[in-house]
Amino acid sequence: MNLNGSTRPVGAKAAILAFLETIRRPDQPLNGIGDDDHLVQSGLIDSLAMLEIVAFLEHEFGLNFRDSGVDPERLASINRILELIAEQGR
Amino acid sequence: MSLQRVWRWHDEPALIAAAATPWGRVALWLAAVLLLPETHRIPVALVLAPALVWPERRVELLAVGALGTLLGMIPLATGPVGIGLRIMGALVVLAICYGFFQAAHRFQQLPRIVRRYPIAATHVVLLGMVGLMVVLRHHFRFADESALGALTATLDILLPFFVWRVSYMMLAGRRGTAARSRFRDHLFYLAPLWGGTKTPFGKGHGYLMERRVDAGTDLAAVRLAGIKLLGLAWILTLLDTALMAGVHGDEISGFRFLWVHALEWPRLHDAILAGPANYPLLERWAIVIVYLVRAVIGLAMTGHVIIGALRLFGFRVFRNTYKPLLAATVVDFWNRYYFYFKELLVEFYFYPTYVATSRYGTRARMFLSVMAAACVGNLYYHVVVRDYHKYFFVEPDVMWERLASRTTYCVVLGLAIYVSMRREQARRGKAATGGGTLATLRRIRAIAGVWIVFGVLQIWITGLTINTFAQRARFTLGLVGITLGAEAHSPAPPLEGAPEPHEERS
After folding, report:
1. What is the DSSP string of B306-334?
2. What is the pLDDT of residues B123-175, one digit of tens each?
3. What is the rounded distance in angstroms from the CA atom of residue B209 to the CA atom of residue B313?
4. Contact residues, B window 105-164, toward A, CB-based 8 Å cutoff
5. Do A48 and B421 touch (CB under 8 A)?
6. CA distances from A54 to A58, B146, B403, B445 (A)
7. Cβ of residue B361 closer than 8 Å to a chain A Cβ
8. Which sign does the torsion angle of CA B165, A54, B174, A41 carry?
9. Tell me: the pLDDT tens digits for A7-37?
10. Fewer CB in 10 Å around end: N or C, chain A?
C-alpha cells in the first residue's frame, strides 16, 4: 500500500496505530499515548525501534528518506508522522 | 513522605513555585555555585546569573560565554605575544566554524554531492585540516612560540573537538533548521561553557531548541532538575573515591578507614599487565566488575555536570547516563550508558546506513546498520577523531596491536547489540510477563548477563597505551579459568599516571 494505492491519508492513522501496537514495549500500552505525545520520551518505543517505523513508512506509504535522511524529531509523535506522510504525498 | 517522593524532591509543586520567584532564582544560583565543579564554576556562574533573569536571552548570553571558552581552550602561552597568538587561534577556529555555518545556512545551494553526503564532506575538510597541520608541524618543525607553530598546534588540538559539533550543525542544515538560525545561536554548543568531551552532550542546535523551556514553572522545574544532577555528581564522586580507597587501596585523605582495610584489588589494566595467573578466578571477575562499575560512575559524574548545567539554562535534555547497571538487555545498557555517544552513532551511522540499504531485507538492513554504528562508527570515532595521536604516531607494530584490540571490542559490541535487538524485537508487542519471585530472579540473571558482556568488553579498551593484544586475550581466557603462556610473574606495581575508567571515555 502507498499513497497512490489503497491506503488513503484518512486511514494512515489507523495503520500507524496498528503498527505501533506491534513494536511497543511490552509494559507500555498504546492507549495511554496521545497523538502529540513523544513516542520515545513516553517510553512506548526506544530510539532504535524508530528504524522499524522508517521501514514501515517506506514500505506502506512509499516514503523516501534517501535525500532528506532520517530526522527522529519528524517521527517523534503520531501527528508528526502523519504530517510527514502528508508532506511527501503532495 | 515516601522515599520515592524524597528522591524526586525537585518535582514538588511548592518547591517549583518557590524556584520560579526572584528569591528562588537567587537560591538556584547560589546552589549552582556551590555544586558546580571548580573548573567551570566561575564562567557558568557569571553567565547563569543574567540567564536566570532573562531566560529569553540565554542563547545570546551563552554565545558570549562561548567566546571566552574558546579562548580558554587554546593551549598556549603567557605574556603579550602568547595572548595575541591565543586570540589569533580562537579567531581562526571561529572563522572555520562560521564557514561551516554558512554552508549549513545555505544548504540547498551547496553542490549536490555535498548535499548528499554533508557529514562525510565535513569530516574530509576538518580532518584534512588536522592532517595538514600535523604534516606542516612535522615537516617545517615550527617552534611552538612562533606564530605558525602556535597556530598549527592550536588547530591540531582544537579541531577534533569541533568535528561532531560541526557535524550536528550540518545535520541542522540538511534538515532545514539551520536556515532559520543565526551563527550566534550555534556558538553555545560548539564551545560549551560547561566544558565537555568530543561527544556533544545535548547533541546540536535542532535538538536543544526542541527542548528549550521558555518560562514559568516548567522552567523552574527544569532548573531544579539541573541542581539535582549537580548534587548527584558530587555523591558519585564520593562513591568513586570510596571505591578507589576501599577496593584499590589508594591513600586518599579523609578515607583512611577504607584504605587501611582495603581489598587491594588492582585496577584492570594493572591486572591485565600482570596476567590472570596472579589472581584467583573470583578476584579476576571482581576486578572486571569493579572496573565496569567505576566506568559507569565516572561517565555519570561527567555527564551529570554537563547535563545539569544545560538544565540550569532551561534545556530539558536527557541524562547522559541513566542507571545502566539495572539494564536487563545489552541494547538497553547501550542506550543508558553513554546516551549522547550512542545518539551520535545512531544519527551519523545507524539511520544513514538503514536508509542507504533499502534494497536489502529488514534483517540485513538492521545488521548492517548496527555494525555501521557500533563497529565502524565506534572505531572511526576513537581511532581517527579522538585518539589519532595514540594510533598513528607510534611504531607500526604498536599501531596494529592497538587497532586489533579496539576492533575486537567494536566487532563484539556490534554483534552483541544486534543479537540483543533481535531478541527485543521478538518480545515487542506482547503483553508484559507477570511479577513474582521467578520474574525477579529472571531479571537479576539478565542484569548479571549484561554486566558480564560489558565487563569482559572493557578488557579490550582499557589501558590503550599500556596493555597489549596478547595480554588482553590472556586475561579474557583467564576469566573462564584458562591461564596460558609464560606469565605468572608477580603483580606489577600500579602504574603512575595511568588513566581512570572515566578518563578513557572522555
Report:
1. HHHHHHHTTB----S---GGG-SSHHHHH
2. 999 999 888 888 887 787 777 667 777 777 778 888 889 999 999 999 999 88
3. 12
4. 115-116
5. yes
6. 6, 53, 34, 33
7. no
8. negative
9. 445 688 899 998 888 888 766 778 778 888 8
10. C
Instruction: Report the residue of A25, A46, A48, A70 to disrupt the B interface, i.e. the one with the largest count of B CBs within 10 Å.
Output: A48
C-alpha cell at B21: 520567584
The answer to whether B432 contacts chain A (CB < 8 Å) is yes
Does the pLDDT of residue A3 top 80, yes or no? no
Sign of dihedral through CA atoms B419, B421, B425, B426? Answer: positive
Q: Scanning every residue of chain B, which has its alpha carbon at the shortest distance from the alpha carbon of A20?
A: B429
Packing angle, helices B281-312 and B38-53, rounded to 10? 30
Per-residue cell: B189: 554548543
Residue B68 above 70 pLDDT?
yes
Which chain A residues are closer than 8 Å to B428 by Cβ? 22-26, 49
> 402-421 in B: which are within 8 Å (CB) of A?
421
- Cβ neighbors of A74 (< 8 A, separation 6 or more) are A80, A81, A83, A84, B175
List residues of chain A with CB under 8 Å from any CB of chain B: 21-27, 46-49, 51-52, 54-55, 58, 65-74
Count Cβ atoms within 10 A of the Cβ of residue B496 and give its class: 0-12 exposed, 13-18 middle, 19 or more buried: exposed
B331 vs A contacts (CB less than 8 Å): 46, 48
Residue with cell 553555545: B188
Contact residues for B58 (Cβ-Cβ < 8 A; gap 6+): B51, B313, B314
pLDDT tens per residue, range B208-231:
998 899 888 899 999 999 999 999
